[in-house]
Design goal:
Length: 293
């Protein structure tokens, strides 16, 4: 297959490397020529383009069989989300109208589930977040779902949970720096996926995802913050972090969700088998990797 990966970052680069390793022809987009050697070394042909500026798509010549959108707004606010996800996707849809791919996988986020009571959410649960940035992710999904139903655009949506893996994992990094705090009473649950499993899930979606379908990409175990830190503390022989102060909790409260993301559809429909079924296997592997450094 001829594959285009838009956004060759933490997820897009190893995805491209794996697809190239499997014999696909992979083209990878970034906004600047920096890091081109890294892409070339992974077997990816680098192209400079920016989804917010469709005039920059010119170097992307010819048709692609598979397209993956893995760009990120690099933690920006609502205006960046609007430009990169919503308008960026609109530009890509317009551009791809001339030469539609066989499959288009869009990386969305489980932050579209605004649920706060610790309930289980599957793909048909309401996606009605309160935060503006998450609402823009929902609007982006809607754009793709409309294109899928109205003109058979082959969009598949993957809602990724918190991505961790080498050098990533916000709470883990804070824990290593002795800067972690347990928020509230520690019972809020988190949903995660190892980067390698997200790469695997994207490939499964490219191969078997159905047009207009949404798949949650989270591992098998939603875990409370307290349980997560307990496990890390035991694993690394360090004390449990202190509880956050009321002031710290108040500052963090906005937009916090509390839900357990179900992954049955990913496993049954796409047949995906996790390399790291829970954070325990994933972080054990990451800790082992770090000890070898
Ligand atoms: N991190 C998480 O826990 C999490 C959770 C759920 C979903 N996601 C989603 O997963 C996806 C991948 O995340 P990631 O961690 O791999 O992101 P990342 O490491 O920040 O990589 C994003 C890539 O997109 C490129 N990019 C950014 N803006 C672009 C633009 N306007 N046009 C073209 N390329 C652009 C960046 O390259 P340059 O900067 O060189 O242009 C970079 O290569 C994102 O859609 C993110 O929203 C992430």
């Amino acid at each position: 297959m001829r594959v285009l990966i838009i956004g060759c970052g933490y997820v897009g680069l190893p995805l491209g490397a794996e697809l190239a390793r499997r014999g696909h022809e992979v083209v990878g987009v970034r906004r600047s020529p920096e890091g081109a050697e890294e892409l070339l070394a992974a077997g990816i042909t680098p192209v400079v383009a920016d989804v917010t500026r469709p005039e920059t798509f010119a170097p992307l010549s010819g048709a692609f069989d598979w397209v993956v959108n893995a760009v990120s707004s690099t933690k920006g606010g609502a205006s960046e989300y609007r430009a990169v996800y919503l308008e960026g996707t609109r530009h890509l849809l317009d551009w791809l109208a001339a030469h539609p791919p066989q499959k288009y996988v869009h990386l969305s986020s489980t932050s579209v589930y605004g649920q706060m009571d610790g309930e289980v959410v599957n793909e048909i649960a309401a996606a009605a977040p309160t935060g503006e940035t998450s609402q823009l992710l929902v609007a982006t999904e809607q754009l793709l779902l409309t294109a899928a139903s109205e003109r058979e655009f082959p969009a598949v949506i993957l809602r990724a949970a918190g991505i961790y893996g080498p050098t990533r994992g916000h709470l883990f990094q804070q824990f290593l720096r002795n800067e972690a705090r347990i928020a509230g009473d520690g019972t809020r649950v988190m949903n995660m996926i190892h980067r390698d499993d997200l790469v695997g899930a994207i490939i499964a979606a490219l191969e078997r995802g159905r047009r207009g379908e949404i798949y949650n990409a989270a591992d098998d175990e939603s875990v409370s913050q307290l349980e997560f830190f307990r496990w890390l503390a035991a694993k690394l022989g360090k004390p449990l972090p202190p509880f956050a102060t009321e002031v710290e909790n108040a500052a963090r409260k906005r937009g916090l969700t509390n839900k357990r993301v179900a992954n049955d559809k990913l496993k049954t429909e796409l047949g995906y088998a996790f390399k790291y079924p829970t954070f325990r296997e994933g972080y054990a592997s990451e800790i082992a990797r770090m000890r070898l450094l």
